[in-house]
Amino acid sequence: MKVSQLFGRTSKTEGIDYKTASHRLLIQAGYIRESTAGRYFFLPLGQAVQNKIIDVVRGHMNEVGSQEVLLPTLHPLELWRETNRTTTTGFELMKIEDRRGAEFALGGTAEEMAVDVVRKFNVSYKDLPFSVYQFSMKFRDELRARGGLLRVREFIMKDAYSFGTEAQFKDTYQAFWDAYKATFEDLGLKVDVVAADNGYIGGEYCHEFISQSDEGESRYFVDEQSGYAAHEDVAKFKVEDKNAGEELRELQEVDAERGTTMEDGVKLHNMPLWQQTKDVLYFDEATKRYVLALIRGDFDVNETKLMQAAGAWDLRHATEEEIREDLGSEPGFISPVGFPKKGKKTGREVVIVGDVSLRTVHNMYGGNNRLHKDLLNINIDRDYKLDVEADIALAQPGFISPDGGALVEKKGIEVGNIFQLGYHYSKLMHDAEFTDETGKRQKYYMGCYGIGIGRTLAAIVEAHHDDKGIIWPESIAPYRVYLVRLGQEEIVMQTAQSLYEDLTRAGVAVLYDDRTDIRAGEKFADADLLGIPYRVVVSAKTCAANQVEVKKRTETESQLTDRESVIKMVAGS
RNA sequence: CGGGGUGUGGCGCAGUUGGCUAGCGCGCCGCGUUUGGGACGCGGAGGUCGAAGGUUCAAGUCCUUUCACCCCGACCA
Length: 573
Known about the structure:
By secondary structure, the protein is an alpha+beta fold.
């Protein structure tokens, strides 16, 4: 390709509004251009990179035996109703109607569609396990797009769906895990694999592949020694015993002229924070129940864990009015001791969820559901009972991981994920079954596996750039060589042209800067900005020496060699 | 949806207490001089100043409404 004919152009002036490096560089170098927020034009260079990434991903998918398909973009809304996903969450689903009023979802993920096509074929145990995957445009009605390609409203995603028996699943999940590791390695991305929350996708466990970056939105914890890694939503940690050996003392009410914060309690009673009870009252809009979360005073409630434990979907904090008038308690003085089972006025059920850390403390202190009254020597089981006991604590940096090392907080870009779906979809959707060896119909056990192609592209730029521009890993560079011609002497014109042809013949993708009205500095600057791995220069100087100049984007010094060596060098590997 | 900010040729911006024909740099087109790290001269093209309504003799500038975009938050594979 000749630069003089390339559609899209670099820009000297950069958009100062763009905060992330990938956003700025990709636009400045002419890879992408914005349409509206979160929707991008992929120009020839950007599309070339995107296709390279797709090739790498496809290779690994094929390697694990997954089969490429293409599902429709418009999903019958009926299918989404079958799994309740039109209502279960505030999922950012785009909807559309045709002129006859038929309703569709613009595909944002395609579990239902995958099940729908598989059930049309009445599979048997002989077909299992198997998986299908596709590359397709996904639509998300994001409240706020950000960071260029990092969070968008339309993007190409590779999504795969596996079908099998429960016994087969472990191997399938591991195979995708390994394939993802290999994929991101090929793409030049170092990723952490972290345990995460399934959210509206359903299922019981999943893992995110996160490229560490300050620009990322995912916060997670890593135990560097053991390799334990988990998203902040699900991160576990060891809870040490405090005074669990202490003898139980008698429950006692005392006057408590204090404010409503934890610190006020600590000051008034002159006792440690960890010995205080933290009582947080929520209301779940989905199930219309109150959820009272109890935890040791020095910990915070992790709302994601809490929702899982309580079976809640849509938590909000209870209002002061609800606390006082419906539950007869007092903000800042809530206590599980004698807390009502139901709202007095509304009759709404109350679920008490306690953190496992409550077992590590005896003789706790806290409110007594009345203004300026506290209780001393509160003890679990004796003074109150839990409906659910679970880990609902929020991990913090420095806490001890389940494996014993200290948790370190990291930020990163989630470029891929793998989900165990189990029977979630096959149970919700009719006929999602296979025939087993005995002729009986069985639900199949599923997984799904996604990679955001555009986001991966952005993550690669975040990981590989300097102040001059992008530095593409060789595996996905849009071109392998940036051939710079300096000057218009006959010999230079001929040498550059024939080198261009020779390299192309040798199978090397060359971007040939044949512009005649552009000076050297600008060509070099563009070469750096574009980030092509090899820069080859042909000029009067190199021709006089009967050589060409070559420099890798990652290096600062160029070298002179003969043209055969250059061809060998860039064609190699 | 809350907070902050910005909308003036493709990009980056200036435009005073309202005042004459809306400017500058980059880029684009033409001619010439240049030519190893973002040259220079001359000549061009390109703008209903985000949109609508209002105030005024007069609006890029003031008022109202609205839309879009950027950043932070809430939300979210």
